[in-house]
Amino acid sequence: MKGRLPRLKKILVDQGYTGPIGEAVKNVCGWEVEVSQPEPKRKGFLPQFKRWIIERTCGWLLHERRLSKDYEQWAESSESMIYLANIRLVLRRLTAA
User: Which PANTHER family match (predicted)?
Assistant: First the structure.
């Protein structure tokens, strides 16, 4: 995967990747693995900030019909559709104001 994703520098993961899997990714691919940690001494539901950003963005992108299923044959086509969906989302928000 390292050769296929040359721009990837950091991977955000949850606590399930603190063991040998996270270390293997770091050693083999050279990517930084950042484990999201919950805030201590807090009660109730509190979203983890970086994870919440990713979940919210995925939710926005899934409103696009073409991204709701994996129709693309190549990863490059899928990546292009994600870029187009993000451009459309930003343009819609810029022109709404």
Answer: PHP DOMAIN PROTEIN (PTHR30007), TRANSPOSASE (PTHR30007:SF0)
Q: Compute the distance between CA of residue 12 and CA of residue 18 in angstroms, rounded to an integer.
A: 11
Task: Tell me the whole-structure pTM to 2 decimals.
Answer: 0.50
Return the amino acid letter for 83: Y
End-to-end CA gap in the chain:
41
Contact 61, 85 (CB under 8 A): yes
Find tokens 């928000």 and name the residue: 93
d(CA 81, CA 66): 8
The residue to which tokens 């073409």 are assigned: 66
- Please name every residue paired with 45 in a beta bridge, in sequence order, or none if there are none: none
- Please tell me what DSSP assigns to residue 89: H
Cβ pair 85, 67 in contact under 8 A: yes
Q: What tens digit of pLDDT does each residue of 10-64 get?
A: 888 777 777 788 788 888 888 888 887 766 776 776 666 677 777 788 888 888 8
